[in-house]
Design brief:
Alpha-Beta Plaits, extended, binds zinc ion, 11 helices, alpha+beta, six-stranded antiparallel β-sheet, five-stranded antiparallel β-sheet, 3 domains
């Protein structure tokens, strides 16, 4: 019985902040190492200023502290981007691909005994962060910039970039947007396609590059076409172009550019993530031709988002289920099809009880071949 509350349960307040934290550079760096290399979360660091907001709590962490953290991560973290078909490799294969590089260095004993692996965190389907155990591996990958790995006859491409914080990514995107100007014509009707480039040239500016048409995510029967233009022509941007035909019909093509609202969820233009009603009634209204059409749109959109089609897609027939997943672990929820190295006959022939290192061995062999031509000496 607790004498103060009159119940058997003690209602504990959070402990008082003991304060008096030292935060010299060397100590913080050692704590960072323990955290990201050994997985030990520091207990006695300055938690920052706490503000309780109802059921939520917010901490403003100490500037000097946070700067050291970012600096430490930037010295050894690489953002790995899986291009094209490599996006659809399973989680485990992606991790193995990244780690194959450090494994190669360990095998040639360049790091001596007791060297253990860096941390891989998959951020999304095509992006992973890799915290290298050594700044040497970091420098080596940054110098390589990209890698092509051939697995069972297919080539998978990875790019290695500097890791950026959220704020730095935002700033990078802003600068990119300033230095480039593109227009996407959205949901182009067949008979308006003919005039597109000439109309853009006349109304906005001559086209520098016309990208291959891509299936529209909301209406897969229509295509979107992207045009690169001179950034100086940005003030000429038009939201839509209407074509009057000889039969007095109107064909309207909507334009989107980097300033157009775009949904982070379904990647469609003209609505924001907050306004997204993907999978809701929104699409049935958009479908126009009754509920059935609307439902199809939703299903199409979900599948076209998840499956790599190449520039114009390979049609609905390309939706293939993963035939066999051996020790791979799914990169996405299991109901979604994806290209997978195990669809390759060479991999399917591997017995169920394959050794866990078989894939890695294969990777290392392929990697050795891939690097034979363009070996970057380790500094
Ligand atoms: Zn959306």
């Amino acid at each position: 019985m607790n004498p103060e509350t009159g119940t058997g349960m003690a209602n504990k307040s959070p402990p008082p902040d003991p304060g008096g934290y030292e935060d010299d550079d060397a100590r913080v760096r050692e704590l960072l190492r323990l955290c990201y290399e050994d997985g030990i979360l520091p207990r006695d660091i300055d938690p920052g200023e706490m503000a309780v907001q109802g059921w939520n709590v917010r901490f403003k962490v100490k500037d000097s502290f946070d700067r050291i953290k970012v600096q430490w991560l930037k010295e050894r973290t690489i953002t790995v981007i899986f291009r094209d078909a490599a996006r659809f490799l399973s989680r485990n294969v992606k991790e193995d691909l990244i780690r194959a590089y450090e494994d190669e260095k360990v095998q040639t004993s360049e790091f001596g005994k007791g060297f253990s692996r860096g941390r891989v965190k998959l951020e999304s389907l095509n992006v992973a962060s890799y915290v290298a155990k050594s700044t040497t591996i970091f420098a080596w990958l940054m110098e390589k910039q990209s890698a092509k790995v051939v697995l069972g006859g297919d080539t998978y491409r990875m790019e290695f970039n500097l890791w950026l914080t959220k704020a730095q990514l935002r700033e990078q995107r802003r600068l990119e947007d300033l230095s480039t100007f593109w227009v996407i014509t959205v949901q182009v009707p067949l008979d308006a396609m003919f005039y597109l480039e000439a109309h853009i040239r006349r109304a906005i500016d001559p086209v520098i590059l016309t990208h291959p048409p891509e299936r529209d995510r909301l209406k897969p029967t229509l295509v979107n076409i992207k045009f690169d233009l001179d950034p100086g022509a940005r003030p000429n941007m038009k939201d839509s172009i209407t074509v009057d035909t000889f039969e007095d019909d109107e064909l309207e093509v909507r334009r989107a550019s980097s300033d157009t609202p775009r949904c982070g969820k379904c990647r469609a233009f003209f609505h924001t993530t907050d306004e997204c009603r993907r999978g809701g009634r929104f699409h049935q209204q958009q479908g126009g031709a009754g509920g059935q059409g609307g439902r199809d749109d939703v299903a199409q959109e979900v599948s076209s988002r998840q499956i790599y089609h190449g520039p114009l897609g390979r049609g609905e027939a390309s939706v293939q289920p993963a035939t066999s997943v051996v020790g791979g672990g799914l990169a996405q929820p299991p109901d979604i099809s994806f290209a997978n190295i195990y669809q390759n006959l060479a991999f399917m022939a591997v017995p169920q009880a394959m050794q866990p290192n078989a894939v890695l061995t294969q990777l290392l062999q392929e990697l050795a071949l891939a690097q034979a031509g363009s070996s970057v000496p380790l500094g």
